[in-house]
C-alpha cells in the first residue's frame, strides 16, 4: 500500500534517469548535426599561414556560407555564396583528401595566374597582398611536384615550362576549381605543388579565433602553454 500519495522511490528514480538520458541523447545528436552542417572547430598545426594565423590558434569554421553537406554523404546543398578571391578557406586537398588544410584563395575559375620573383599576378595584373610573408630567404629552385602545372600553362608564352617556388605560370584555373596559397609563402605546401582545390573539397570558411596558445618548445615540461589573450575573439580576414 502506498502512503502519502508518493511514487515508489525506484519508479521515481527510473523516470528521472530516463528523462536525463533522453535529454543528453538529444543534445548529443544536435551537437553532431551542428558540427556536420553549420560550425566546426579547427586547430592550426603548421606555420604556413603565419602573418594571419599562428600555430596554436583554434578556429571556429562556418560551413553554411558555401553550402550545407548532407551528414554522412558527399551531397552538397547550394549555399548563399561562392568562394571568392582573398578568402581564407578550410578544405580537403586532392593529394590528402582525409585531411583538412587552411589556405587563401588567389584564383577562381577562369583566372590566369603567374608569379614573378615572389610577386603574384592575376590576369596579367599585379595583386597587392598585404597578408603575404616572404621571410625564409632560401634559394629558389625547381621542384618535381610542380610539374603538374605544365598541362595548365599558357604554353604559347613559355614553350619550356620549368616552374619554381617563386616563379611559375601563367596557368589557367579550370572550371569548378580554385588555386590556393599559404600566406607564409616560402614554407607553405599549397596549390603550387599539388594542384587545384575542387569546389566539393571546400568545407568552410574560418571566421573567429576562439582560443590561442603558444606551442610548447619542450614537450616534456608540465607547464601549461602561454595563452595569447590578444588573439582570442579575433575575426579572420
The CATH topology corresponds to: Umud Fragment, subunit A
What would the principal axes of the Cα set say about the shape? globular
> What's the number of extended β-strand segments?
13
Low-confidence stretches: 1-5, 26-38
Sheet-strand content, in percent, reads 25-35%
- Order of strands, widest sheet: 1-2-13-5-6-11-12
What gap, in angstroms, lies between the N and C termini?
70 Å
Please state the structural category: alpha+beta
Mean pLDDT reading: 80
Can you name the CATH architecture?
Ribbon
CATH class: Mainly Beta
**Helix-residue proportion:** 10-25%
Give the radius of gyration. 24 Å
What attributes does this structure have?
single chain, 237 residues, alpha+beta, Umud Fragment, subunit A, 7-stranded antiparallel β-sheet, 4-stranded antiparallel β-sheet, 2 helices, 14% helix, disordered N terminus
